[in-house]
Design brief:
This protein starts with a helix and ends in an 11-residue tail after the last strand. The radius of gyration is 18 Å and the shape is elongated. A hairpin with a 5-residue loop joins strand 3 and strand 4. With 106 residues, it is α+β, with helices and mostly antiparallel strands. Helices cover 29% and strands 23% of the residues. Strands 1, 2, 3, 4 and 5 form a five-stranded antiparallel β-sheet that branches.
């Protein structure tokens, strides 16, 4: 497949307002689904993951125990290598704590 100079310039441009909103909406949909499982965003805002990328992140905590998760955009949107109109939004949901020991007294 041959690419023209104008096509390559369009691909290299930052995400449009519409594409940017799609990324935010994807995180909001996952956030809302996780709220149904007992997680809370504690009124945190969706923020940029790093200052030099287009990736966003959000941390959530489960209200009844210690579990904390972090969501963030990864892949082509985060690295600004997506091909317009042909990309999906990749979101990672990571639970950093995996083990919580409980010891008997004595």
């Amino acid at each position: 497949m041959k690419f023209t100079e104008s096509t390559l310039k369009r691909y290299a441009a930052p995400p449009s307002d519409t594409e940017n909103q799609q990324c935010l909406n994807a995180i909001k949909m996952i956030r809302d689904a996780l709220k149904g499982l007992g997680f809370s965003d504690e009124n945190r805002e969706i923020v940029p993951l790093y200052s030099d990328t287009y990736a966003y992140s959000l941390e959530m905590r489960r209200t009844k125990d210690w579990r904390k998760i972090k969501m963030f955009i990864q892949g082509s949107y985060a690295s600004n290598t997506n091909i317009r109109t042909q990309s999906d939004v990749d979101i990672a949901v990571i639970q950093e704590e995996t083990f919580q020991p409980e010891y008997r007294i004595g």
